[in-house]
Amino acid sequence: MPGDLAPQGPVRTYAHDVRKRLRVVLASLIVLLIAILASSYFVARGINRGSKQEFVQGAIPLKSAVQDMLFQMVNQETGSRGYIITGDKATLEPLTAGRAAVPADLREIAKHVALVPTLGAELARIRREIAAIERHHDKLIALVASGPAGQRAAVASVPQGSVLFDAFRS
């Protein structure tokens, strides 16, 4: 038909080839997009799983060591105050137990923070605070052991120890 606008012969074949190639390219792009989405899903999942594992292996033991150290410092405070109030050396048992356990907790904490310089500086500060608290306890214990006047002086010095301990705990 002379009025037909549809391409004839080689033009029709060329247009057909272009459509065919476009379909192939489009299908390839869709497959590539699916592959990228799938790989990004699995990469994200692996990163998430790895971070959870790292958290479990690092943060939880660190938190446990910090909590135990704080508990042992409370033991020291309890033993010191018990001795100040009663003058009975048996009340020093929590202090003795706390003093024995704190260095091990500090070593455990140091292992976990070794790779983080800012936490290392914080740990050094905490060690200084612990040393100051323990010196304060020793001073109070020596005062109580010196007699009734020393015990009264130790009782009067308890608020100073509370300030040290509260700063440490925070």
Keywords:
170 residues; mainly alpha; 88% helix; 0% strand; rod-shaped
What does it look like?
With 170 residues, the chain is mainly α. It has four helices and no strands. It has helices at 10-86, 93-113, 117-145, 148-169. Helix 1 packs antiparallel against helix 2 and helix 3 runs antiparallel to helix 4 (148-169). It is rod-shaped, with a radius of gyration of 36 Å. The termini are far apart. The mean pLDDT is 85.
Largest sheet: none
User: What overall geometry do the principal axes of the alpha carbons give?
Assistant: rod-shaped
Strand tally is: 0
Helix fraction by DSSP (H/I, runs of at least 4): over 70%
Please report the distance between the alpha carbons of the first and last residues.
94 Å
Our estimate of the beta-strand percent is under 5%
Radius of gyration from the alpha-carbon trace, in angstroms: 36 Å
The unreliable regions are: none
Number of helices: 4
Helix/strand structural class: mainly alpha
- The secondary-structure element order is HHHH
Oligomer: single chain
Mean pLDDT over the full residue set: 85
